[in-house]
Amino acid sequence: MGRSILAIPLHVRNANDGNVDAPSATSAWSAFDFGIVFSMWAVMMIAMMLPSAFPTVMAFATICRKRGQNLFRLSPLFVLGYLSIWLLFSIVLALLQWQMHGLLWLSPMMDNNNRILAIAILVMAGAYQFSPTKNACLSYCQSPVGFLMNRWRDGAMGAYRMGIQHGVVCLGCCWAEMLVMFSVGLMNITGMLVLTLIITPEKLSPFNAAISARIGGLLFFAWAGGVMLSD
């Protein structure tokens, strides 16, 4: 456990410290293994990203009601479209985990074995918070009514397509933050909670997107510094 509180959510072990449970670079994943890892990522994505989408889902339901449409039928389709993007991203994350496992960057307990990589991921996530793409995507997430009205389509397929569109924007906003789980340890509940507490408030923040994103970026830089100074 590191001396800095910022390093508490990180579990990094040196790949050369003689850890007997270090995975072999030649160890193969079966289809069942991949399915388990994908399921883990899918549950994690839903748990972390659904709360941050709540304002947009509520805005969608309100617009449905005002337009005389069945919000109880269409709202679940909107949510399904939104989650479809994160489920697809879960496949990408599972493939990335497979590669990291083969390179000995992750232990069998899914902790990070490479301190430099852990710090680099946190710095990358912090740097992305200052990018124009992050700013644009977060602006949409902070203004759900405007986002929906500019893309509104009636009917079931319209609801599903709008959910997909919101999912794409949300992915553009948060993909780098999701990679931080590779830094803190994939089974690290504390790390997941810290990430959720960064992602959700920035979308609900009274500040504009640029300020909210930069606050998150500074937090990631501080986190990286804490890891760098930890044992």
Distance between the termini: 7 Å
Count the E strands.
Answer: 0
Poorly predicted regions are 1-26
Listing every helix as H and every strand as E from the N terminus to the C terminus, the arrangement reads HHHHHHHHH
Radius of gyration, CA atoms, in whole angstroms: 19 Å
Strand coverage percent: under 5%
The biggest sheet amounts to: none
pLDDT averaged residue by residue: 86
Helix content: over 70%
What is the overall number of helices? 9
Structural class: mainly alpha
Name the shape in a single word: globular
Number of domains: 1
Give a verbal description of the structure.
The protein is mainly alpha-helical and 231 residues long. Mean pLDDT is 86; it is low at 1-26. The chain has nine helices and no strands. The chain is globular. The protein has one domain (31-229). Helix 4 crosses helix 7, helix 4 packs antiparallel against helix 9 (209-229) and helix 7 (155-184) packs across helix 8 (189-204).
List keywords for this structure.
231 residues; mainly alpha; disordered N terminus
Architecture blueprint of SSEs:
Layout (H helix, E strand, L loop, with lengths): L30 H19 L4 H13 L4 H32 L12 H14 L3 H11 L1 H7 L4 H30 L4 H16 L4 H21 L2
Helix pairs in contact: 1-3, 2-3, 3-7, 4-7, 4-9, 5-7, 7-8, 8-9
Protein name: DUF2182 domain-containing protein
Keywords: Membrane, Transmembrane, Transmembrane helix
InterPro entries: PpoB2-like
